[in-house]
Glycosyltransferase, GT2 family
Amino acid sequence: MSPPLISVIIPVWNGSDVIGRCLTALREQTMPAGQFEVIVVDNGSTDNTVKLACTFPEVVVYTEDRPGSYAARNRGLRHARGHYIAFTDADCRPDPKWLEKALEAAERNPRAGVLAGQIGLFEEGDFSSALFSDYERLFSFPQALARRGNCATANWMSRREIFDKLGGFDENLKSGGDRAMALRIRGAGYPLVYVPEMIVGHPVRATREELIRKRRRLSGGRWDRTQPSGRLARVLGVTLYDTARRIRRVWMTPGLTIGRKVALMRLTMDLSVVATREYWRLFLGRRSARQ
């Protein structure tokens, strides 16, 4: 049997509530089923994620014991047979034309190192406040700035030869490994290209607690990626700069009431405190958070 054109790799950890939706969306792609394969890599789930994934006969399921989504993605890479490698996440909902548009973009950009698609946010489940949705829409997934390295693996496609040449993701990172990989690819001379018509939906973080968990995880990723010499000062400086930049963006965003802007600025400052506390925790020898 000839190899598929595209291998889709999905890492998952305790994703029984969402993996079925993602796999159903891939089943509904406009690209003919024989042109792509779907690989799910379970990363130590304790729920029935694997059982659910196995109900999709077209899906191949592997396991990766080392904790971390980048270790799981690398496991998928070792088994992938496609000329192109596409990544999405278990809680995502790829548009029916996702792979079709990705392939069209690859043909237009034959030298591209990464094709970074648009990530549209959607609301689901118990939604506690539109404030959190506003925050996520302002600051999450700036894929349009792909050329700077903002290429999230929620919506990413590369030629297989890129990984064969440069190696896989840094498995020591719990967060930010996609940006680190994208910068390695750019450093090797391959362009990072934003493809707005290549669309994947991603749920917003619906509660303050989810935003706090996300900020802790992202802060751990930044800590792990920063050189040890002067690390605490460096990450605190970046956090201060990033907080000021975000507050300015909130203030300059049209269509928000003064009250909503004040609430968003307060939330921005609260999350910067979360990041600062996480850096101190890591400075004292703790390990970065996985979730």
